[in-house]
Automatic annotation (TrEMBL):
Domain of life: Eukaryota
Record flagged with keyword Cell membrane: no
Keywords: Repeat, WD repeat
Organism: Nesidiocoris tenuis
Protein name per the record: Uncharacterized protein
Keyword Heme: no
């Protein structure tokens, strides 16, 4: 059920702080005939992105058991601290210690937009679900919202707090959450721009945030070695999870919401079941702290990147669903029927 599928050592020349996983379908001319659907399925492929302290963003192809570098995107002058792939996997946004945000075209492998910021204006970045906006958490406790097409600054949300280390856009587009160095989580209503919730469950820096696919839950990771699950509407913690021996640096929900994954400075990656809030498996493939983890779009694989310059892909295959036969007996479905 859980196993290492591929590991790329020396994937970058520096520590790898950030990654993303998308699924692309190259545009093709219109077709006629029965082969059209089959051809479209064959054209769909996974794309993995990594960003490093060496200042580069790299695009990787993954064919099931092997990682292969597809492209290297150069332009940042200093380390890349955050990358994200947009919803339809056509663009990458990256942010760097050089105080710039760059938007890249995945198919063309080229820069399409550069956004300049001040020394306190840019840290982690994220796309809005419709890809029209890019948000960036700032060291002064503010969130800048940019137009992704023009690069113009549209508005600023003020958490009235400290350095924002992590941000997340809810999949339904209604909320933006930020996590600060003082352990405070702020949730904003996108439509009004107002701060609607302030969550104070952690006492140490919030390294990562992840909304559930239905936008009902917010998962947080902190230097206090704990993760918390919050009910977004009620603004209350519904669970506190522990298991890592050091800072929890990254968390991510599976797209099917059944599980989530965490990475830590204890060098491990842990897989958790949402329903019963338990850790199902621990991967120990990295030799240094794990800065970010992501699920594949189909929820069957996990990606992790680390200070050890490596990139790992793991299998998280689900058991086939049980189906009920006559007389109430349970049978595990399989390909043989």
């Amino acid at each position: 059920m859980f196993k290492l599928l591929a590991k790329m050592t020396a994937a970058h020349e520096g520590a790898i702080w950030t990654c993303g996983w998308g699924r692309t379908a190259p545009k093709k001319p219109e077709q006629n005939g029965d082969d059209e659907v089959a051809d479209e399925q064959n054209d769909i492929h996974d794309v993995i992105v990594s960003g490093s302290m060496d200042g580069t963003v790299k695009i990787w192809d993954f064919d099931g058991d092997k990682l292969k570098r597809n492209a290297q995107l150069d332009g940042h002058c200093f380390g890349v601290v955050s990358v994200e792939i947009n919803a339809d996997s056509t663009m990458i946004v990256s942010s760097s210690l050089d105080s710039t945000i760059r938007i890249w075209d995945i198919e063309e492998r080229k820069l399409v937009r550069k956004i300049e910021g001040g020394p306190l204006d840019i840290w982690t970045v994220a796309f809005s679900p419709d890809s029209k906006h890019v948000i960036s958490g700032c060291q002064n406790g503010k969130i800048n919202i940019y137009d992704s097409a023009s690069g113009n600054l549209l508005s600023t949300l003020d958490s009235r707090g400290k350095f924002i280390l992590s941000i997340a856009y809810s999949p339904d587009g209604k909320y933006i959450a930020s996590g600060a160095v003082d352990g405070i989580i702020s949730v904003f209503d996108v439509a009004t721009g107002k701060l609607v919730h302030t969550l104070e469950g952690h006492a140490m820096p919030i390294r990562s945030l992840s909304f559930s696919p239905d936008s009902e839950l917010l998962l947080t990771a902190s230097d206090d070695k704990h993760m918390k699950l919050y009910d977004v509407q009620r603004a209350n913690a519904v669970a506190t999870l522990s298991g890592h021996a050091s800072w929890v640096l990254s968390v991510a929900f599976a797209p099917d919401k059944s599980h989530f994954v965490s990475g830590s400075s204890d060098n491990t990656v842990k897989v958790w079941q949402l329903e019963n809030r338990t850790c199902l498996h621990t991967f120990k493939e990295h030799g240094d702290q794990v800065w970010q983890v992501k699920y594949s779009p189909d929820s069957t694989k996990i990606l992790s990147v680390s200070d050890d310059h490596s990139l790992c892909v793991y299998s998280h295959e689900r058991p086939p669903p049980a189906r009920r036969e006559k007389y109430g007996r349970l049978r595990i479905a399989n390909d043989d029927g």
